[in-house]
Amino acid sequence: MRVRTSGVLLFIAYLGFISLGLPDAAHGINWPFVRTEFAVPTGWLGLVIAGGGIGYLMSSFSVGYLLSRFGVGWLLVVSSLLVSLGLFGFYFSASFIVFVLFAIVIGMGSGAIDAGLNAYAAEHFSTKHMNWLHAAFGVGATAGPIIVTTVLVSFSQNWRLGYVVLAVILFVMAMVFLFSRHLWESDKHAPKKPAEHLEDTTIVSQRQALKHPVIRFQILFFFLYSGVEVGVGQWAFTVMTESRGISLASAGTWVAVYWGMLAFGRAVFGFLVERFSVDQLLRLCLAGVVLGALFFTTSVTPYASYFGLALMGFCSAPIFPCMISQTATRVGKKYSAHAVGFQMSAAVTGAMTLPFLSGLVGGHYGLTSLSLTFLLYAILLFGLFQLILTRAK
Fold it and tell me: Secretion signal: which residues (predicted)?
């Protein structure tokens, strides 16, 4: 029997995931103005993303120790304050180096929030709510570009002010966590889910798991997938405004649509996975990502760019959660715990490195070549999925 506060905590957890998604897409909107002010190359957006990823890895790897030491309530309070501090730091940054340092601070806070909420939800909330929590992240990632674009259009392209608005929202979220921290701690003694198949996961070492061929392919799959999802979200605004003559308002709106379709798609596919083969849905969605990347890359008209973004967002929606859920089926239960850990690490690494690589390509060969990298990643992703299915059988 769960305590009465679990419903309240669930609501707060949803708010937490929404707030977690707010800053993620903001860089893609603000970057043209940030790089102009700091006089840095276009491709250096990758350094900002890499800084956030380094901070994320630092905190997420140590979240187990932090939870045992401070409890989930205080962890969420401090982590939200770190994100808010980093966003305020963007406002006051006088150089690009300082800007990147504050990106690391934001990454540290985001990693602890993400890992802390996921660890708590996995123990106390149902699988259905776990899926919807990740959809809530998409809601935040959708709202972020809308907020930042509105500030840019309304306040003479003041990119610093957009970060301040997000910082205030995260500070309010930190206060929500602060005043609800006793609810989190009082609920921690609720009955926990049984540790199923524990004997299977403990007899396999990490080295043994890494020798599994399907696990290796899935590590590469998550590396590529996160690179596509994050890369498109971060670079689409720059590509559309600087090489295709699309207005700031239109480009910002359609980047928001991209993230919005990601959230909407997770809601839709949450119902479809119960009625259709998961692998068939994944195959269709990966083909849709390739088609969307093709439309966005060729961009015969601005509407082709818009359609490509929307299609990529919608078709990307179920890929990450469905691939995670199918891990035990593909590699076996005794390998699954290690495999999921490798996949999450690969996803963060891909999100840090592939957008940076795309930026380097764009800086050297032009923004058209930058968008072409998304198509290449999508094609490789589709082929890799077919290889995973073949080897898993």
Answer: none
The pLDDT, as a whole number, for residue 201 is: 42
Lowest mean pLDDT among 51-60, 193-202, 267-276: 193-202
Distance from C-alpha of 255 to C-alpha of 309, rounded to nearest angstrom: 7
**364-378 residue pLDDT tens:** 888 888 889 999 999
> What is the value of pTM for the model shown?
0.68
In this prediction, residues 89-96 reach a mean pLDDT of: 94
Measured distance CA(258)–CA(245) in Å, rounded: 19
Residue 242 class from Cβ within 10 Å (0-12 exposed, 13-18 middle, 19+ buried)? middle
Q: According to DSSP H, which parts of the chain are helical?
A: 6-21, 26-38, 45-61, 63-92, 96-124, 127-154, 159-179, 181-186, 198-202, 206-210, 213-243, 248-272, 278-298, 302-316, 319-325, 327-331, 333-365, 367-392
Task: Retrieve residue 387's tokens.
Answer: 């290889």
Residues 6+ apart with CB under 8 A from 364: none
User: Would you tell me which CATH number, out of the four given (1.20.1250.20, 1.10.1270.20, 3.40.50.150, 3.30.70.580), belongs to the domain 200-393?
Assistant: 1.20.1250.20
Q: Distance between CA 290 and CA 293 in Å, rounded? A: 5
Find where tokens 């490509």 sit. 308
CA 237, 239, 243 angle in degrees (round to 5)?
130
CA dist 149 and 164 (Å) reads 13
- CATH superfamily membership of 1-186: MFS general substrate transporter like domains (1.20.1250.20)
User: In whole angstroms, how far apart are CA 345 and each of 138, 340, 341, 351?
Assistant: 20, 9, 6, 10
Region(s) of the chain under CATH 1.20.1250.20: 1-186, 200-393
- The 10s digit of each residue's pLDDT in 70-87 is 888 888 899 999 999 999
207 pLDDT more than 50 = yes
